[in-house]
Prior knowledge:
three-stranded antiparallel beta sheet, alpha+beta, signal, seven-stranded mixed beta sheet, 172 residues
Amino acid sequence: MLALAALALLSSAAALTVNSPAALTECQPVQLSWSAGTPPYYPAVIPAGQPGAASLVTFPQQDATVATWVVNLAAGTNVTIKLTDGTGATAFSAATVVQKGTSTACLTAAPSAGASNTGGASAGGSASGSASHAASGSASASASASAKPSSGDKVAAPALAVLAAAALVAAL
């Protein structure tokens, strides 16, 4: 009975989610947003279908749940927004293809304020799978978790809940 109550409490905790942008247009601003999780947040733009890939664009640490990005990637680029929170939980947006804009000036200019192009990996977290969207977590002795994106508007990465539930089940 106690185990069921604990599992119910864990499942009611809000999971980190990334809101998928309606559209991405080259050289146009877009507001990225997310909910739940624990600040600080580390948003990044990665190639769609490659959750462990190096970031195409990284953002500075965010304490709020929104960030504005002037899309400085060429039309036709298929991307996913990856978000890692202060606990290491990771969530992904749906895959989105950058659309052609009326200007390409930002593609050769310096990156927009608050974002930068990089060849390095984004901060924190680990992921595996493809960029379609259902989150699944797996526990390990190091308390890491894997998030597997699946299709949908939002993806939750309930890594901490999975770890706690696994520990609770093991204790039974």
